[in-house]
Amino acid sequence: MKRALTYLAFAILGIGIGAYSALTMAGLLPGDRRTQGPIEINNWYGDFAMGSEDASPYFRARIARHGLLALANTEAVYFTRTVDDSGQPFTEDCMYQLSGGAMPARWWSVTLYNAQNFLPDNTDSALSFDASRADMQSDNGSGWSAVISPAKPADDTGWISSKASEAFDLTLRLYVPNDGVLEDPEGMIDAPSVKRLQCSGDAS
């Protein structure tokens, strides 16, 4: 009887550890944020297995969990960022400056998602900044910037609305990446910076 109880205890322990491991790898635990990945460029994380046949069952479950319609990496690559340049998590209470240069892709965009991995529920129609808007700031899309804040800036700068997002993250998409990006992303991609400008409650 004692031996049977010991076997039962180990079986329950094994099932528990296995279930926790599977839920963690699939991104199904509460508080899990986006997809992360083995590629890290300036606090942006990506995984080129997204949308490919090489993706593991766990990774596919993670993508499905976050509702991403992942294209093949020859068509689009994805990077997610959850912290500013100082390492602090993004929050609606703060204003940020997103800035970067030319991207090695036919087209690109940066989109804001809330903590539930959805677009924030606001009517500002300003949840993304893309290559076409960057080109309006310069002749070749280099040296662009946008403000991330819950209220529209007074000047006519680029703007991503964080209204009603609370905690949020940013997703960078590069559509039809240039030759060499898949082989050497760290060397080819100059990922945008995200500088925190001010937060509500900061001393003036």
TrEMBL record:
<feature type="domain" description="DUF1214">
    <location>
        <begin position="75"/>
        <end position="178"/>
    </location>
</feature>
<dbReference type="Pfam" id="PF06742">
    <property type="entry name" value="DUF1214"/>
</dbReference>
<dbReference type="InterPro" id="IPR010621">
    <property type="entry name" value="DUF1214"/>
</dbReference>
<protein>
    <submittedName>
        <fullName>DUF1214 domain-containing protein</fullName>
    </submittedName>
</protein>
<dbReference type="InterPro" id="IPR012038">
    <property type="entry name" value="UCP009471"/>
</dbReference>
